[in-house]
Automatic annotation (TrEMBL):
Keyword annotations from UniProtKB, A to Z: TPR repeat
Keyword Metal-binding: no
UniProt xrefs under InterPro entries: AAA+_ATPase, P-loop_NTPase, TPR-like_helical_dom_sf, TPR_rpt
Residue windows of the TPR repeats: 594-627
Protein name: AAA+ ATPase domain-containing protein
Ranges of compositional bias, category Pro residues: 98-109
Region (Disordered): 89-109
Tree of life domain: Bacteria
Amino acid sequence: MQGLDPRGVTSAEEYVVLLRRVRDRSGLSYRTIAKRAGAVLPASTLATMLARRTLPRRELVSAVLAACDVRPAAVAVWLEVWERLAERAGDAEEEPPPETVPFQLPPPPPVVVGRADELDRLAAGLAEPQGVWLLTGAGGVGKSTLALLAGHRAAARYPGGCLYVDLRGASADWAPSEPHDVLLGFLRALGVRTAPHTVEEASAVFRSVTADRAMLVVLDNAGSAAQVRPLLPSGPRTGTLITSRWRLPDLDVTGRLPVEPLSTTAGSDLLAHLCGADRVAAEAGAAGDIVRLCGGSPLALRIVGSRAAARMVPGTLGAVAGHLGDHARHLDELEVGDLSVRAGLRVGYRSLVESADGLAATVFRVAAVPDWIDLSAAACAAMLDTPVVTVDRALELLLDAHLVESTTAGRFRYHDSVRIFAREQAEAVDPAETLAAASERLVAVMFSAAASATRSLFPHDPLPYGTLGATAQSLIPPDATTAQAWQWLERERVNLRLLAGQELAAGRSLPAIRDLGVAIAKYLDYAGHFVDQARFGQLAIAAAEALGDRLAVAQALNTLAIGMLRHERRREGIAMLEQALAVRRELGDRAGEAASLNNLGNAHRDEGDLDTALRCLQESLALRRELSDRYKTGSALDNIGIVLRLMGRFAEALDHHHAGLAITRELDDRIREALVLTNLAETEHVAGQPHDALGHAERALALSRDLRHDRGSGLALRLMGDVYASLGQTARARACHDEAAELLLQPAARTAPESVIRPARR
């Protein structure tokens, strides 16, 4: 190799620096040099002595040069210079100091709950040679706690010591630590007296010193991959734990461990440890609310637990839960001493504000203002009037900072605390008219997409789309299949309801809210989302009343009444339907009159008043035939068939079902066809025609599955189970009933437990 000439060296420090360059140019590890040199000294001692300012021993210099393939003549020159420097120093044979073994880990946390799986993964990861593990998650989720506990548990595996540093990448009050400063601190802890002038040289010395050590390095609260890279040891027996609230996708690591919020059980256990198990047991409901409102954040729970522990009055947890549920007080409740959820969120938000592209900060603020559960990137782009690809990049930054969560591909959501913080920032930064305009754009595009989806599902039903479809939308294809339309509404129905409620409270979009409640009522009924059906009815009634639209009030009453009927509140439902019928007759709304009569017939049927039910349904059928409404005629015929079955008039019932089925097939209404087939099969089953019933139920099941209509599939399976049971095929019956139970309970499980508000008396 090309030699480095030491003859111009004037000090021991310069001599060592030049000798290190020889080693660096060789590309050899200290372990390899030690082997080539015949193990004159251990590799770790070689590295330590070459990191010092004092002159190494003569045999060490000779061994290193020979191992690095320096020619003998050049080695002689090196040794001549060594003799000169040694004579000047008076004593070049200074023995190396004993190896320093630092242990810098802070004390382990006093209690950790619900993290057994994560600790097992870290233990297994650190058991592998040269493991580098990155723990990521939102602020306050417990990353540092996990890393410290894992480090203490693994410390015996690292006799070379444990280094720790808080990189302050998540500090609201301090600038992030400079890698050069951190490296100098590490080198001092390792007994290295030299102070390299650049981060590159300091990093090289650090890697040299730790090359043969069994050492653990914990880099807490990393702010970026660039901050971390110089601090990584490269020895084969080292282990590294890194924590960061950013995902650091540009950092190469052995493994990544996303740290999630605590489960409800673990959160309750932590709360019990902090403020007493007896208190948590006595106020179990409030404790559960606290865990939910804190989002399972250990930091938030520690703050709440500490505050509650200082107040031993009965009912304290209930009061705390009430304060957390109040958005105006939520973040104020999550502060105690120097612990603050708001301060932690400010760190992540500040990184967005200070970034070159400020769009992510704008998205973070503005998208939090409208009410929704989880939102698509396309809807967010429409709200901000920005291309989807641009919003996607901004959302990636928010995901990296754990300020939003990804629910499924292309969708995101806020935790409650984060949303409240984002709204605080929006109110402080963005003009009110800007926020209102963004909300109105989101509502317009979402309502328009809802109209497109319901039109795809029910192309023959004259639903009120006029005010809903006025805005161009790209959230659902205009030629969407029935299954696509169904799935879009399944994903967005709660968002639609929340947005409608927020707009109603602000006195905006009243015509659209009035029409939306009626337009999607049929989908909600078919899907089994009866709570939402009632709530949309309430919203539509309120909007119609505010507009002074009596006919629309009657339409909305019809929607709400069906929700009441599905909740077994038949008397209330019947009263609403009669009220709606009277208004429609007064205003000459013949189609509306037929609809109210049809629903009244079904309500009286469920009440057991079959004669009244049949009379109402026959009146509805006559009106629909008079209006030449083939679609609604098919529905009325099928409903009459159900009443006739209950009366025991099976032949007439079957005739009505077949007539209704023929119309649905004529109109190619596959959703309605599946339901009519199920009703027909049920009548055939009761009439003693089990094999015909099975055939029609199986066809209904196939149609419903193809449409991804869970409730339709559940109804068909339940009937098939009944038929199989009547045939003595117990195993098949049980299988059908079990699957049906899952499908029919699923919509209710997805419905938020909110009470249905009764409409004002008219």
